[in-house]
Amino acid sequence: MGQRHGRKERLDRGIKARSEDIFALSSWRELLYLLCPRVVPLLVLFCLALGLPVYWKKVLVTSAIFGILAMSWDFLVCAGLVSLGQALFFGVGAYLAGTLHHAWGWPWWFTIPVASLLGGGICTILLAPVLRLRGIYFSMVTLVLPLMLVRIIEATKVLGGTEGLSGIQGFPNLGVELVLSLGAFLAALFGYRRILGTDYGLVLQGIRDNDRSVISSGINAHWFRAQALFLAGCLGALAGAFMTHAYMFVGMPVFALDYSILPITAAVVGGMGSIAGPALGAFLLVPLSEALRALGALRIVFYGVFLVIFIVGLPEGLFHYLRRKYHQFERWTAVES
Protein backbone atom coordinates (compact mmCIF):
# COMPACT_ATOMS: atom_id res chain seq x y z
CA MET A 1 0.00 0.00 0.00
CA GLY A 2 1.19 3.43 -0.80
CA GLN A 3 1.81 6.03 1.88
CA ARG A 4 -0.32 9.15 2.08
CA HIS A 5 1.46 12.48 2.21
CA GLY A 6 0.21 16.01 2.06
CA ARG A 7 1.19 18.90 -0.16
CA LYS A 8 0.13 22.48 -0.26
CA GLU A 9 -1.53 23.76 -3.43
CA ARG A 10 -2.48 27.26 -4.44
CA LEU A 11 -5.68 28.07 -6.25
CA ASP A 12 -7.04 31.31 -7.66
CA ARG A 13 -10.05 32.66 -5.85
CA GLY A 14 -13.26 32.41 -7.83
CA ILE A 15 -13.89 36.11 -7.43
CA LYS A 16 -10.57 36.79 -9.18
CA ALA A 17 -11.59 34.82 -12.27
CA ARG A 18 -14.99 36.52 -12.44
CA SER A 19 -13.78 40.07 -11.85
CA GLU A 20 -10.43 40.08 -13.67
CA ASP A 21 -10.45 37.32 -16.27
CA ILE A 22 -13.98 37.17 -17.65
CA PHE A 23 -15.04 40.66 -16.48
CA ALA A 24 -18.41 39.48 -15.15
CA LEU A 25 -19.13 41.57 -12.08
CA SER A 26 -22.30 40.47 -10.34
CA SER A 27 -22.09 42.17 -6.94
CA TRP A 28 -20.66 45.14 -5.08
CA ARG A 29 -18.30 42.72 -3.33
CA GLU A 30 -16.66 41.79 -6.64
CA LEU A 31 -16.44 45.44 -7.64
CA LEU A 32 -14.73 46.27 -4.34
CA TYR A 33 -12.40 43.30 -4.81
CA LEU A 34 -11.35 44.76 -8.15
CA LEU A 35 -11.01 48.35 -6.94
CA CYS A 36 -9.31 47.86 -3.57
CA PRO A 37 -5.74 47.22 -4.81
CA ARG A 38 -5.97 50.33 -6.97
CA VAL A 39 -7.89 52.75 -4.76
CA VAL A 40 -6.47 51.99 -1.32
CA PRO A 41 -2.86 52.99 -2.19
CA LEU A 42 -4.16 56.25 -3.66
CA LEU A 43 -6.14 56.98 -0.49
CA VAL A 44 -3.11 56.20 1.68
CA LEU A 45 -0.93 58.59 -0.36
CA PHE A 46 -3.62 61.26 -0.21
CA CYS A 47 -3.95 60.94 3.58
CA LEU A 48 -0.17 61.01 4.06
CA ALA A 49 0.14 64.11 1.88
CA LEU A 50 -2.47 65.89 4.00
CA GLY A 51 -1.65 64.63 7.47
CA LEU A 52 2.16 64.39 7.73
CA PRO A 53 4.26 67.18 9.30
CA VAL A 54 6.43 69.32 7.03
CA TYR A 55 9.63 67.26 7.46
CA TRP A 56 7.92 63.99 6.56
CA LYS A 57 6.19 65.63 3.60
CA LYS A 58 9.69 66.32 2.24
CA VAL A 59 10.52 62.65 2.86
CA LEU A 60 7.36 61.75 0.93
CA VAL A 61 8.59 63.87 -2.00
CA THR A 62 11.98 62.12 -1.91
CA SER A 63 10.26 58.72 -1.74
CA ALA A 64 8.21 59.54 -4.85
CA ILE A 65 11.32 60.64 -6.77
CA PHE A 66 13.28 57.54 -5.78
CA GLY A 67 10.19 55.52 -6.68
CA ILE A 68 10.32 56.95 -10.21
CA LEU A 69 14.04 56.10 -10.43
CA ALA A 70 13.36 52.53 -9.20
CA MET A 71 10.54 52.07 -11.72
CA SER A 72 12.79 53.20 -14.58
CA TRP A 73 15.32 50.56 -13.45
CA ASP A 74 12.64 47.87 -13.37
CA PHE A 75 11.39 48.86 -16.83
CA LEU A 76 14.90 48.27 -18.19
CA VAL A 77 14.94 44.86 -16.52
CA CYS A 78 11.63 44.01 -18.23
CA ALA A 79 13.42 44.60 -21.54
CA GLY A 80 16.36 42.42 -20.54
CA LEU A 81 18.71 45.31 -19.66
CA VAL A 82 20.17 45.24 -16.13
CA SER A 83 21.58 48.60 -15.11
CA LEU A 84 24.12 48.94 -12.31
CA GLY A 85 24.41 52.70 -12.77
CA GLN A 86 21.01 54.33 -12.58
CA ALA A 87 22.92 57.37 -11.30
CA LEU A 88 23.81 58.03 -14.96
CA PHE A 89 20.20 58.89 -15.86
CA PHE A 90 19.66 60.73 -12.58
CA GLY A 91 22.85 62.79 -12.85
CA VAL A 92 22.44 63.72 -16.53
CA GLY A 93 18.87 64.93 -15.90
CA ALA A 94 19.96 66.85 -12.78
CA TYR A 95 22.83 68.63 -14.53
CA LEU A 96 20.73 69.43 -17.62
CA ALA A 97 17.99 71.07 -15.53
CA GLY A 98 20.54 73.00 -13.47
CA THR A 99 22.50 74.15 -16.51
CA LEU A 100 19.41 75.23 -18.46
CA HIS A 101 18.30 77.42 -15.56
CA HIS A 102 21.78 78.66 -14.62
CA ALA A 103 22.78 79.58 -18.18
CA TRP A 104 19.53 80.89 -19.65
CA GLY A 105 17.27 81.42 -16.66
CA TRP A 106 14.60 79.02 -17.88
CA PRO A 107 11.87 78.36 -15.25
CA TRP A 108 11.48 75.00 -13.50
CA TRP A 109 8.26 74.14 -15.35
CA PHE A 110 10.22 74.28 -18.63
CA THR A 111 13.60 72.87 -17.61
CA ILE A 112 12.17 69.68 -16.07
CA PRO A 113 10.41 68.32 -19.21
CA VAL A 114 13.24 69.50 -21.49
CA ALA A 115 15.89 67.92 -19.25
CA SER A 116 13.87 64.70 -19.09
CA LEU A 117 13.65 64.32 -22.87
CA LEU A 118 17.22 65.49 -23.51
CA GLY A 119 18.53 63.28 -20.70
CA GLY A 120 16.75 60.23 -22.09
CA GLY A 121 18.18 60.96 -25.55
CA ILE A 122 21.74 61.57 -24.34
CA CYS A 123 21.80 58.41 -22.21
CA THR A 124 20.40 56.38 -25.10
CA ILE A 125 23.16 57.66 -27.39
CA LEU A 126 25.84 56.95 -24.76
CA LEU A 127 24.64 53.38 -24.20
CA ALA A 128 23.60 52.54 -27.77
CA PRO A 129 26.98 50.94 -28.70
CA VAL A 130 26.59 48.27 -25.98
CA LEU A 131 22.95 47.38 -26.68
CA ARG A 132 24.01 44.71 -29.16
CA LEU A 133 26.36 43.03 -26.70
CA ARG A 134 25.20 40.06 -24.64
CA GLY A 135 26.11 39.25 -21.05
CA ILE A 136 27.14 41.77 -18.42
CA TYR A 137 28.64 44.40 -20.75
CA PHE A 138 25.62 46.72 -20.57
CA SER A 139 25.67 46.54 -16.76
CA MET A 140 29.41 47.25 -16.63
CA VAL A 141 29.15 50.29 -18.90
CA THR A 142 26.25 51.77 -16.92
CA LEU A 143 28.34 51.33 -13.76
CA VAL A 144 31.44 53.00 -15.22
CA LEU A 145 29.90 55.96 -17.08
CA PRO A 146 28.74 57.95 -13.99
CA LEU A 147 32.21 57.54 -12.44
CA MET A 148 33.81 58.81 -15.66
CA LEU A 149 31.50 61.84 -15.85
CA VAL A 150 32.34 62.81 -12.26
CA ARG A 151 36.07 62.74 -13.00
CA ILE A 152 35.56 64.77 -16.19
CA ILE A 153 33.64 67.47 -14.27
CA GLU A 154 36.26 67.49 -11.51
CA ALA A 155 39.23 67.68 -13.88
CA THR A 156 37.86 70.21 -16.38
CA LYS A 157 35.97 72.42 -13.86
CA VAL A 158 32.98 72.54 -16.21
CA LEU A 159 29.38 72.78 -14.90
CA GLY A 160 30.60 74.42 -11.70
CA GLY A 161 33.40 71.91 -11.10
CA THR A 162 33.60 70.52 -7.58
CA GLU A 163 31.39 73.31 -6.18
CA GLY A 164 28.48 72.61 -8.50
CA LEU A 165 25.75 75.05 -9.51
CA SER A 166 23.79 76.81 -6.75
CA GLY A 167 20.96 79.34 -6.77
CA ILE A 168 18.76 77.10 -8.92
CA GLN A 169 15.12 78.13 -8.91
CA GLY A 170 13.01 76.13 -6.48
CA PHE A 171 9.31 75.29 -6.47
CA PRO A 172 6.85 77.97 -5.28
CA ASN A 173 5.95 76.03 -2.13
CA LEU A 174 5.93 72.56 -0.61
CA GLY A 175 2.36 71.91 -1.75
CA VAL A 176 3.32 72.32 -5.42
CA GLU A 177 6.39 70.14 -4.90
CA LEU A 178 4.29 67.44 -3.26
CA VAL A 179 1.53 67.44 -5.87
CA LEU A 180 4.00 67.39 -8.77
CA SER A 181 6.17 64.60 -7.33
CA LEU A 182 3.22 62.35 -6.45
CA GLY A 183 1.54 63.13 -9.77
CA ALA A 184 4.70 62.22 -11.70
CA PHE A 185 5.08 59.07 -9.60
CA LEU A 186 1.51 57.87 -10.29
CA ALA A 187 1.77 58.80 -13.99
CA ALA A 188 5.01 56.80 -14.31
CA LEU A 189 3.49 53.84 -12.46
CA PHE A 190 0.37 53.80 -14.62
CA GLY A 191 2.29 54.48 -17.84
CA TYR A 192 4.92 51.77 -17.40
CA ARG A 193 2.36 49.14 -16.32
CA ARG A 194 0.13 50.11 -19.24
CA ILE A 195 3.01 49.78 -21.72
CA LEU A 196 3.98 46.34 -20.39
CA GLY A 197 0.37 45.18 -20.75
CA THR A 198 0.26 45.96 -24.48
CA ASP A 199 1.64 43.98 -27.43
CA TYR A 200 4.63 46.34 -27.39
CA GLY A 201 5.32 45.37 -23.78
CA LEU A 202 5.01 41.68 -24.63
CA VAL A 203 7.72 42.13 -27.27
CA LEU A 204 9.99 43.75 -24.67
CA GLN A 205 9.41 40.89 -22.23
CA GLY A 206 9.97 38.39 -25.04
CA ILE A 207 13.35 40.02 -25.71
CA ARG A 208 14.16 39.63 -22.00
CA ASP A 209 13.19 35.94 -21.98
CA ASN A 210 14.75 34.88 -25.28
CA ASP A 211 16.09 37.56 -27.60
CA ARG A 212 17.27 35.07 -30.24
CA SER A 213 13.72 33.79 -30.74
CA VAL A 214 12.42 37.36 -31.08
CA ILE A 215 15.13 38.22 -33.63
CA SER A 216 14.45 35.03 -35.60
CA SER A 217 10.80 36.05 -35.91
CA GLY A 218 11.83 39.17 -37.85
CA ILE A 219 11.58 41.75 -35.04
CA ASN A 220 14.42 44.23 -34.66
CA ALA A 221 15.20 43.54 -30.99
CA HIS A 222 17.97 46.16 -30.83
CA TRP A 223 15.60 48.92 -31.95
CA PHE A 224 13.08 47.86 -29.28
CA ARG A 225 15.84 47.85 -26.67
CA ALA A 226 16.86 51.37 -27.71
CA GLN A 227 13.26 52.52 -27.31
CA ALA A 228 13.01 50.91 -23.87
CA LEU A 229 16.30 52.57 -22.91
CA PHE A 230 14.97 55.97 -24.00
CA LEU A 231 11.70 55.51 -22.07
CA ALA A 232 13.57 54.48 -18.92
CA GLY A 233 16.17 57.21 -19.41
CA CYS A 234 13.51 59.92 -19.64
CA LEU A 235 12.00 58.95 -16.29
CA GLY A 236 15.43 58.58 -14.66
CA ALA A 237 16.39 62.05 -15.95
CA LEU A 238 13.04 63.41 -14.74
CA ALA A 239 13.88 62.24 -11.23
CA GLY A 240 17.24 64.03 -11.35
CA ALA A 241 15.79 67.24 -12.83
CA PHE A 242 13.08 67.34 -10.16
CA MET A 243 15.60 66.91 -7.34
CA THR A 244 17.75 69.74 -8.74
CA HIS A 245 14.87 72.20 -8.34
CA ALA A 246 13.78 70.66 -5.02
CA TYR A 247 17.28 71.14 -3.53
CA MET A 248 18.04 74.31 -5.60
CA PHE A 249 21.50 72.89 -6.20
CA VAL A 250 23.27 70.42 -8.46
CA GLY A 251 26.77 69.02 -8.03
CA MET A 252 28.89 65.92 -8.44
CA PRO A 253 27.00 63.96 -5.70
CA VAL A 254 24.16 63.39 -8.20
CA PHE A 255 26.39 60.73 -9.79
CA ALA A 256 26.97 59.04 -6.41
CA LEU A 257 26.66 55.29 -6.05
CA ASP A 258 23.67 55.76 -3.74
CA TYR A 259 21.46 56.61 -6.72
CA SER A 260 22.48 53.33 -8.36
CA ILE A 261 22.11 51.10 -5.30
CA LEU A 262 18.79 52.33 -3.94
CA PRO A 263 16.73 51.46 -7.08
CA ILE A 264 18.16 47.93 -6.98
CA THR A 265 17.47 47.47 -3.26
CA ALA A 266 13.97 48.88 -3.72
CA ALA A 267 13.36 46.30 -6.45
CA VAL A 268 14.71 43.51 -4.23
CA VAL A 269 12.43 44.50 -1.34
CA GLY A 270 9.37 45.24 -3.47
CA GLY A 271 9.78 42.57 -6.16
CA MET A 272 11.25 42.81 -9.65
CA GLY A 273 9.36 42.73 -12.94
CA SER A 274 6.14 44.32 -11.74
CA ILE A 275 6.97 48.09 -11.81
CA ALA A 276 4.76 48.46 -8.71
CA GLY A 277 7.17 46.38 -6.59
CA PRO A 278 10.18 48.74 -6.84
CA ALA A 279 7.82 51.69 -6.26
CA LEU A 280 6.58 50.05 -3.06
CA GLY A 281 10.16 49.26 -2.05
CA ALA A 282 11.19 52.91 -2.44
CA PHE A 283 8.31 54.03 -0.22
CA LEU A 284 9.56 51.62 2.46
CA LEU A 285 13.31 52.18 2.23
CA VAL A 286 13.49 55.98 2.01
CA PRO A 287 11.35 56.65 5.13
CA LEU A 288 13.19 53.81 6.93
CA SER A 289 16.52 55.42 6.10
CA GLU A 290 15.28 58.74 7.51
CA ALA A 291 13.84 57.09 10.63
CA LEU A 292 17.20 55.42 11.34
CA ARG A 293 19.18 58.64 10.81
CA ALA A 294 19.36 59.27 14.58
CA LEU A 295 21.36 56.03 15.00
CA GLY A 296 24.33 57.50 13.12
CA ALA A 297 26.72 54.87 11.78
CA LEU A 298 24.56 52.06 13.20
CA ARG A 299 21.89 53.03 10.68
CA ILE A 300 23.73 51.09 7.98
CA VAL A 301 23.71 47.96 10.19
CA PHE A 302 19.95 48.08 10.77
CA TYR A 303 19.40 48.96 7.12
CA GLY A 304 21.46 45.93 6.07
CA VAL A 305 19.63 43.61 8.50
CA PHE A 306 16.32 44.80 7.08
CA LEU A 307 17.49 43.99 3.56
CA VAL A 308 18.78 40.54 4.53
CA ILE A 309 15.46 39.72 6.21
CA PHE A 310 13.60 40.56 3.01
CA ILE A 311 16.03 38.71 0.74
CA VAL A 312 15.93 35.53 2.86
CA GLY A 313 12.34 35.67 4.05
CA LEU A 314 10.63 37.08 0.96
CA PRO A 315 12.81 36.39 -2.10
CA GLU A 316 9.85 37.03 -4.42
CA GLY A 317 9.43 40.56 -3.04
CA LEU A 318 6.74 42.16 -0.91
CA PHE A 319 4.49 43.16 -3.80
CA HIS A 320 4.38 39.68 -5.34
CA TYR A 321 3.74 38.17 -1.89
CA LEU A 322 0.83 40.50 -1.15
CA ARG A 323 -0.65 40.00 -4.62
CA ARG A 324 -0.44 36.22 -4.27
CA LYS A 325 -2.15 36.29 -0.87
CA TYR A 326 -4.87 38.57 -2.26
CA HIS A 327 -5.65 36.53 -5.38
CA GLN A 328 -4.99 32.97 -4.22
CA PHE A 329 -5.74 30.69 -1.28
CA GLU A 330 -3.77 27.67 -0.09
CA ARG A 331 -4.93 24.26 1.06
CA TRP A 332 -3.42 20.90 1.91
CA THR A 333 -4.23 17.93 -0.32
CA ALA A 334 -3.42 14.26 0.15
CA VAL A 335 -0.84 12.67 -2.16
CA GLU A 336 -0.26 8.92 -2.36
CA SER A 337 3.19 7.57 -3.07
Describe the protein's architecture and organization.
- The protein is mainly alpha-helical and 337 residues long.
- It has helices at residues 14-21, 28-51, 54-78, 87-104, 108-127, 137-156, 174-196, 199-216, 221-247, 258-270, 276-291, 298-313, 318-327; strands at 4-12, 165-166, 249-250, 328-336.
- The strands form two sheets. Strands 1-4 form a two-stranded antiparallel ribbon. The chain has a two-stranded antiparallel sheet with strand order 2-3.
- The longest helix has 27 residues, at 221-247.
- The termini are close together.
Name some characteristics of this structure:
mainly alpha; 4 strands; two-stranded antiparallel ribbon; 337 residues
Helix and strand string, N-terminal first?
A: EHHHHHHEHHHEHHHHE
Q: Report the sheet-strand fraction.
A: 5-15%
* Largest β sheet strand count, sense and barrel closure: 2 strands, antiparallel
The strand line-up of the biggest sheet is 1-4
The shape, in one word, is globular
Number of helices: 13
- Gyration radius over CA: 22 Å
**What is the mean predicted local confidence, pLDDT?**
86
Q: What level of helicity do the residues show? A: over 70%
